[in-house]
Design brief:
Layout: E1 6-11, E2 14-19, H1 30-45, E3 51-56, E4 60-62, H2 67-75, E5 98-102, E6 105-107, H3 109-115, E7 119-123, E8 127-129, H4 143-151, H5 153-162, E9 166-167, H6 168-174, E10 179-181, H7 186-200, H8 203-216, H9 221-236, H10 240-250
Parallel strand pairs: 2-3, 3-5, 4-6, 5-7, 6-8, 7-10
Antiparallel strand pairs: 1-2, 8-9
Helix pairs in contact: 4-5, 8-9
Length: about 260
């Protein structure tokens, strides 16, 4: 529907979620957050969706919190959310790969939402900034934990303390994004990447890997090793995808993995 704050379509194993406030450059609101997180959960439950792509309608991805909301927060007049809000890091708990297609300006909580995706593609020349220091606030929603783990402490401190604007090309050099492509090719290339992993990678294996990576960020090497052994024994050793992965490799054909959906 035209008034949906986030659009969703599923095709060839890929769910495409589009932040849909183009008249406000997809500026973040609690209502949009609730719809977006609800749709992520629906995609997680949908066996037809094996990978998720997130992008923005129009010319921006998300430049941060809506200016009116910022003014209300500064004035102390913001109304509480209608229900308990899920953490901004909620996408990291979704047991399917999420790929961001950053089609335009990405700042503040918009950048945080990009960082909690698992892979990031960016259109050439787009502008990215943390912005928080220039708004008189701290590093929000865990970005002080996320950013150093993605780009390293020194680079994270630069981006946080200065709040400076960087272009997609510098973001690629820093490791903030995985790939930079021409703007006109961004969505096609991102969806093609998502379709490839949807078609050729085991959904249950990807779910385990995503959980392993985020857990390992706060654990020891030995704990990560033992977690992998436990997953092998309890989840993967007897799963049909293991046999199918071997057979398809030996028979030189595309795999036919089972769909995965968290209840």
């Amino acid at each position: 529907m035209a008034d949906d704050l986030v659009l969703c379509t599923v095709d060839q194993g890929v769910a495409l979620l589009t932040l849909n406030r183009p008249e406000r450059k997809n500026a973040w609101t609690v209502a949009m957050e609730e719809q977006y997180f609800d749709l992520l959960r629906e995609c997680e439950r949908d066996p037809a969706a094996r990978a998720i792509v997130v992008t923005g309608a129009g010319t921006a991805f998300c430049p941060g919190l809506d200016a009116q909301d910022l003014e209300n927060i500064a004035a102390g007049t913001t109304k509480p959310a209608s229900r308990d809000r899920r953490a901004a890091t909620y996408p990291t708990t979704i047991a399917k790969p999420i790929i961001a297609a950053l089609n335009g300006a990405c700042a503040g909580i918009g950048l945080i939402q990009a960082l909690v995706c698992d892979v990031r593609f960016a259109a050439a020349g787009i502008k990215i900034t943390t912005a928080f220091a220039r708004r008189g606030i701290m590093a929000e929603h865990g970005i002080g934990w996320l950013l150093p783990r993605i780009v390293g402490t020194g680079r994270a401190m630069d981006l946080l303390l200065s709040g400076r604007v960087l272009l997609a090309e510098e973001a690629l050099a820093l490791g903030l994004v995985n790939r930079v492509v021409p703007a006109e090719d961004l969505l096609d290339q991102t969806v093609a990447y998502a379709r490839d992993i949807a078609a050729n990678c085991s959904p249950i294996a990807m779910a385990s890997m995503k959980a392993q990576v985020y857990a390992a960020a706060e654990s020891s090497l030995e704990a990560a090793r033992l977690q992998a052994l436990g997953l092998w024994a309890d989840r993967h050793k007897g799963h049909p995808d293991f046999g199918e992965g071997i057979r398809s490799f030996v028979e030189k054909r595309p795999p036919d993995f089972e769909a995965f959906a968290r209840p």
